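Course assignment 3, question 2. Fill in each field.
Student: A.L.
Task: Predict the tertiary structure for the chain below.
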Amino acid sequence: MSDANATSDNPQRRHGLGLIAAAVVLGGIGWGGWHWFEGRHSQSTDNAYVAGNLVQITAQVNGTVVAIGADDTDFVRAGQILVRLDPADARVAVEQAQAQLAQTLREVRTLFASHAPLKAQVALREAELPRAQTEVKRAQDDVDRRAPLVASGAVGREEYQHALAQLASAKDALAAARSAVLAAAEQLRASQTQTEGTTVDRHPQVLRANARLREAFLALQRCELVAPIQGHIARRGVQLGQRVQAGAPLMTLVALDALWVDANFKEGQIDGMRIGQSAELQADVYGKKVFFRGTVVGLGAGTGSAFALLPAQNATGNWIKVVQRVPVRIAIDPRDLAEHPLRIGLSMEVKVDTLERSGKALADTPRNGLSKTEVFEAQQRASSAEAQGSINASLGRKPAASAPVGVAAPRTATKP
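Answer field:
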């Protein structure tokens, strides 16, 4: 008996095959419907990882570590002291700068005070000029009276010669008086040139000494390394007693409240992706039971291989095409991130809804204020206040009501 006859003669088997065929057809219809209404409007990948800002804490001045304020896994707030260096050398430099500023202020005050004696000297020389002119006029009158009498013998030639000598001497004295007036006036102008258009505390020499004091005071304050943002400490490598150089990395600060996901999609998947599209994320650490809401904030400017340390050399004889991947940055909803904390480097599964395509494929406007901190503003203000206080003390002034102007820094903020 053939198989066809066996099938036709077995109604149960025919019924089972019919059910299987119906299930396959229904499954195909269901999958087709899902793909048409939803599947074709989404792209997913499991090549995605959590990323964030790794803030390296580096020494700004040379010094020896005398205290460590935070260790790995510790939470720190912005402005908290993380590492303290030996401040002895910096304090000596501050004292030297203070002494130099005080000395410069005294020299500049002396320069301003020298105007009055020079003005008096000019007035004295100008007062002597009329007397010298009077002496010249008197000597000229004596010569004029004696000149007609020399021929008649009423006045001796010796007396006439004596009158001529007195006239010459008076003229020399007048010329000397005029030169003295000019010299005193030039000396006054030279002194005024060094102080013209400025005050004692705004004089260039004082400003230079003031800048040196601020620099020294900043170096003293930078012996205390503070956290620029709040976050968690990782990779602490500094130890007590260690001699560190400026720029040496000491530890890393991670802001776990400002993380994002870098999802690497295949090049054939990004055609319909736009900035602003919603995404659904799952973390391996939480499994399928926890979902994170996300938003596409940017698409990479190139594939990962294009920025690799050793890029692929495709212009070779033996070439195999490799599907490239483009990094897509996805911002995580802060509420989800606060409820279920993540760590940098964790694996994620990402599904992007590409139905809404009104956004742009590439950003065309810059984002301002991406990452800023204001914790160093206090150091700038303190250095300005220290220098201004030294100036006020040297000039006998009371402290100014308003704080001296320092280098302002923006507020603390971090964005993906």
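Instructor remarks: Residues 87-222 form a domain with the Helix Hairpins fold (CATH 1.10.287.620). DSSP finds eight helices and 16 strands in the chain.
Grade: pending
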